[in-house]
UniProtKB/TrEMBL annotation:
The keyword Kinase does not apply. GO terms for molecular function: hydrolase activity. The lineage of its organism: Bacteria, Pseudomonadati, Acidobacteriota, Terriglobia, Terriglobales. This is Hydrolase. SUPFAM superfamilies: Isochorismatase-like hydrolases. InterPro entries: Isochorismatase-like_dom, Isochorismatase-like_hydrls, Isochorismatase-like_sf. Signal peptide: none annotated. The keyword Ribonucleoprotein does not apply.
Length: 186
């Protein structure tokens, strides 16, 4: 569904913009993703709306064909949020141990306690962390908006599939500028 509105109590969720991940070979320049996310963060903070900064520090249990499970810890600094996000004391910070930000955390409780009814999601990677978080937010009853120009993936086909086929079933999509324009009207 094309972007139409934002609820008065909308939160921004930023997925996995952390030191250990952003050095990946993404299909879009990561600096552009960070800049657009930063613009959204600035607008959400100016409107006194919640900003959620999510990092990943583990993996869900279970076997997969592609990624063998390891008990090794992440290297020093790998989970650190990017300094460009300018983490503030009022931000909600969540450390997840799965693809989605809701499954292994108390994020749903934190948002619902604040009366949040809608989330805007950005970050990396589109077809894993962002998509899983969007699916989980939708399943928890939040209205979902995805800032499609503020996310990227390692795989072009996965990125485009999520944006074209999955996200329209979960919520509305729009550009950073379109979302900021709607925020300014709140």
């Amino acid at each position: 569904m094309q972007l139409s509105t934002l609820d008065p109590n909308t939160a921004l969720i930023v997925i996995d913009l952390q030191k250990g991940i952003v050095s990946g070979d993404f299909i879009h320049p990561i600096a552009d993703i960070i800049d657009r996310t930063r613009a959204l963060i600035n607008t959400f903070r100016a409107k006194n709306l919640p900003v959620v900064l999510v990092n990943v520090a583990g993996r869900a249990p279970g076997r997969t064909e592609q990624a063998p499970r390891s008990t090794a810890s992440f290297s020093e600094g790998w989970t650190d949020l990017l300094p460009q996000l300018d983490q503030q004391p009022g931000d909600i910070t969540v450390t997840k141990r799965s693809w989605g930000a809701f499954a292994t955390t108390d994020l749903e409780h934190q948002l619902k306690t604040r009366g949040v009814t809608q989330v805007v999601i950005t970050g990396v990677a589109t077809a894993t962390g962002v998509e899983a978080t969007a699916r989980q937010a939708y399943e928890q009853g939040f209205n979902v908006t995805l800032a499609t120009d503020a996310m990227t993936d390692l795989r072009e086909e996965a990125h485009h599939y999520s944006i074209s086929h999955v996200f329209p079933r979960l919520g509305e999509t729009g550009s950073t500028n379109e979302i900021i324009s709607l925020l300014e009207k709140l």
